[in-house]
Specification:
CATH superfamily of chain B: P-loop containing nucleotide triphosphate hydrolases
Radius of gyration of chain B: 18 Å
Helix content of chain B: 25-40%
Largest sheet of chain A: 2 strands, antiparallel
Radius of gyration of chain A: 19 Å
Structural class of chain A: mainly alpha
Helix content of chain A: over 70%
CATH topology of chain B: Rossmann fold
Oligomer: heterodimer
Strand order of the largest sheet of chain A: 1-2
Order of helices and strands of chain B: EEEHEEHEHHHEHHEHEEH
Strand content of chain A: under 5%
Largest sheet of chain B: 6 strands, mixed
Number of domains of chain A: 1
Shape of chain A: globular
Largest interface: A-B, 21 and 26 residues
């Protein structure tokens, strides 16, 4: 029964990874863009939630009504002011620009909040559990997180499949110049894609802060998990991202069950295995679907 | 003739250090059909790309309906009335055939070309609507690309290498669309390597050679030898 529990908890943890990875997957799918500051932006959102919940004296979850739209605005502005300059050129420029942004965010957080680890306290919800039996309990917050991930991915999939702007996303992903001939401004599409990417990762950052503690330098480690989820699921595939997140979560917690030190290791091994034997991932195709 | 719909003056275009067009000047009148012929690498596609704004000119001016379009970015030129059927067709493979048609009309001017209108003109697309944009035959892709461009109801339709890679019978079918397009009063500027095809549909033609206009005229006014000379840049061998 402990193994079943490991799988159940792994699936729940996978929801958080998937939510983290959604924005990476979207940015890669639409504009072949890899944002190394993605994890740092999540942590930034978590810190902002700390400040807001303290100063407004509200539950951290309430701050999502500010943090998520704030992520949208920040993403749009970042794309327009910074990332646009490095889309479609040598990938080295993307790496330098986004890595640099990550360093700036980390040190700004260190300056403002010190190196102390923080947590977001959401009260009784944090420990509330649905008991299945003696060995298995489903925590409310992890369940809410997984449901958030499914809801966000479903909404994005419907948006991309069924709306005019979503169609423009797919067309731009296929061929940005041909899309311009249709009157689509790729820079606007890119900006909206990054806005959606950062707002989803802001949500992920706050939920991460509820789940555990974080500090100014927690971004990169979470970025690695998000990357692994994206690669396992298949680059640019939104549903693959969910499957990849869950696969990674389950692998980590099964490893954890074998030996508490093995958790991250087994996750990385599954990732390396996918890279070695199925480099396109579970749902891989380098197009936005 | 009033001032032409499209007027190009002394246009130079370069890709980095490589200059593709040298001092091109030409005009296309409203409702005219003009062909640009020339060998591979003569700069024909570059000229069309400059007109739609995908490559910036180094020098010279492009005027559309009397005013310079230099400051209009590529994605706004379709609203101004310029549509391009690009070389290689560039069908969106993630979109269905129907979506490929509809997206052409996302930004459209009022006019006769609607989804029903293009399906009427190109009935072969009717049974493909649900299919994905990838996996179509060359002729289907070319027809779809023309239908997609027409959805914007352009005043000026640019056609790039319509016949390239198509079987002769398919080329003929695709070219049957041109009278339909002209009948709506649309101005057509088409680029072709296939001289006979291009001359047959055109009111006037220009021949490009290594980025310069080597010859221009009306079909019938110019001899076959003159065209051959301008096309290849050398005199035909005579006895």
């Amino acid at each position: 029964m402990v193994w079943v529990n490991a799988v159940v908890q792994g699936i729940l943890l996978g929801g958080l990874y998937a939510l983290f990875a959604t924005g990476l997957s979207l940015a890669f799918g639409v504009m072949r863009f890899v944002n190394l500051a993605h994890g740092d932006l999540a942590i930034l959102a978590a810190f902002i939630a700390v400040s807001l919940s303290t100063s407004l004296d509200v539950n951290p979850l309430v701050t999502l009504v500010i943090v998520v739209p704030g992520g949208f605005v920040v993403g749009y502005a970042l794309q327009r002011l910074v990332f646009d300059r490095v889309v479609g050129v040598d990938p080295a420029f993307q790496i330098v620009a986004t890595f640099g942004l990550g360093v700036i965010i980390q040190n700004a957080l260190l300056e403002k909040y010190t190196a102390d680890t923080q947590g977001l306290n959401v009260g009784s919800l944090e420990t509330a559990t649905i008991r299945i039996n003696d060995a298995i309990g489903i925590g409310w917050m992890p369940l809410v997180t997984l449901l958030c991930a499914i809801a966000v991915l479903t909404a994005l999939a419907v948006f991309i499949k069924a709306t005019k702007l979503g169609r423009a996303f797919r067309a731009t992903s296929d061929d940005a110049d041909a899309a311009r001939l249709m009157g689509i401004d790729p820079r606007r599409v890119f900006a909206v894609a990054m806005a959606l990417a950062i707002s989803t990762v802001a949500l992920a950052g706050v939920l991460l802060g509820v789940r555990g503690s974080f500090g100014p330098f927690s971004g990169p480690e979470n970025l690695i998990f998000a990357f692994e989820a994206v690669v396992i699921g298949g680059l640019g595939s939104l549903w693959g991202t969910l499957a990849g997140g869950i696969t990674l979560g389950v692998a980590q917690l099964i490893g954890n069950q074998i030996d508490p030190q093995w958790g991250q290791l087994t996750g990385h091994l599954v990732f390396l295995g996918v890279l070695a034997f199925r480099p396109t991932g579970m749902f891989g195709k380098v197009a936005l679907r | 003739m009033d001032s032409p719909l499209l007027q190009i003056d002394d246009l130079d275009v370069a890709y980095g250090d490589f200059q593709a067009l040298f001092g091109i000047s030409l005009g296309v009148g409203e409702a005219e059909t003009v062909s640009i012929i020339g060998a591979n690498g003569a700069g024909k596609s570059t000229l069309l790309k400059a007109i739609v704004g995908l490559v910036p000119p180094v020098r010279g001016e492009i005027r559309f309906d009397g005013s310079s379009i230099a400051s209009i970015p590529a994605h706004r030129r379709v609203a101004a009335g310029i549509a391009l059927v690009p070389e290689g067709r560039r069908i969106f493979s993630s979109l269905s055939v129907e979506e490929n048609i509809v997206i052409g009309g996302d930004i459209r001017r009022p006019g006769p070309w609607t989804k029903a209108g293009v399906l009427d003109a190109f009935p072969l697309l009717q049974k493909l609507l649900r299919r994905s944009g990838e996996g179509l035959s060359g002729g289907e892709r070319q027809t779809l690309a023309i239908a997609r461009a027409l959805m914007a109801n352009p005043r000026l339709l640019l056609l790039d290498e319509v016949s390239l890679g198509l079987a002769p019978i398919v080329v003929r079918q695709v070219y049957e669309a041109i009278p339909l397009i002209k009948a709506q009063g649309t101005t057509v500027l088409l680029v072709e390597q296939d001289v006979n095809q291009a001359i047959a549909v055109a009111d006037r033609f220009y021949c490009l050679l290594e980025g310069r206009i080597a010859l221009s005229g009306r079909p019938g006014e110019v001899t076959h030898d003159e065209i051959t000379e301008a096309y290849f840049g050398m005199s035909t061998v005579r006895d």
